[in-house]
Amino acid sequence: MSTAADRRFPQIPEEKLTPEQRAIVDDIRAGPRSKLSTSSASKPGPIGGPFNVMLRSPGIGMLIQKLGGEIRFNSIISGKLNELAILITARHYMANYEWNAHCKLALKGGLDPAIAQAIAEGREPTGMDADEALVYEFSKSLHNNHGVSDDLFERAKKRFGEQGVVDIIAVNGYYSLVSFLLNVDKTPLPAGVEPALKPLKK
């Protein structure tokens, strides 16, 4: 389990932020993330999580965090389904920081804890409703097959529309990038939190 000492991108004290980095932090804290107790944007002190890594490339970092805000808060896919796709992505990349933040949001949004637990353990959940099962199948196919079959595409388009299909693709893609940022950084979990995701047997 990673600790603060393992982190490759130390958090930047606010007084040491460049003007470009400060603009990113201010933009994040002015947005809806600041209202989420699970987000570092809602806490005083240096910005954490993937945003801390994004600060190292301010031009890209600003665009990434704005894209993330659009995907998180303006997707036509419901909160619970969006969070389900994020959990599937976090499990695929064993991104424990991402899982810890978004599992709480998924459960708060109405996802059955048994579904989250099955995903954490690498099992296909039982008891999913039709929408959950479709998002699960679509997201798993993106990660495992790097695309989807014609049948799966048509079923998703019929249920969610073309925009919904793009939004499902986007949330999986964005949180793949976030997983890379967190895993390369070795971003530690909050104090006292044990990793929920373990390596899966192949």
Please outline what is shown here.
With 202 residues, this protein is mostly helical. The chain is 60% helix and 0% strand. It has helices spanning 19-29, 49-54, 58-73, 79-93, 96-108, 113-120, 130-145, 150-185.
Helix and strand topology:
Layout: H1 19-29, H2 49-54, H3 58-73, H4 79-93, H5 96-108, H6 113-120, H7 130-145, H8 150-185
Helix pairs in contact: 1-3, 3-8, 4-5, 4-7, 4-8, 7-8
Give a written overview of the molecule.
- There is one protein chain.
- This protein has 202 residues and is mostly helical.
- Helix content is 60%, strand content 0%.
- It has helices at residues 19-29, 49-54, 58-73, 79-93, 96-108, 113-120, 130-145, 150-185.
- Helix 3 crosses helix 8 (150-185) and helix 4 crosses helix 8 (150-185).
- The chain is globular and about 55 Å long.
- The protein starts with 18 loop residues before the first helix and ends in a 17-residue tail after the last helix.
What key phrases describe this protein's structure?
single chain, 202 residues, mainly alpha, 8 helices, 60% helix
Low-confidence segments: none
- Portion of residues in beta strands equals under 5%
**Helix run count:** 8
Structural class call reads mainly alpha
Largest sheet composition: none
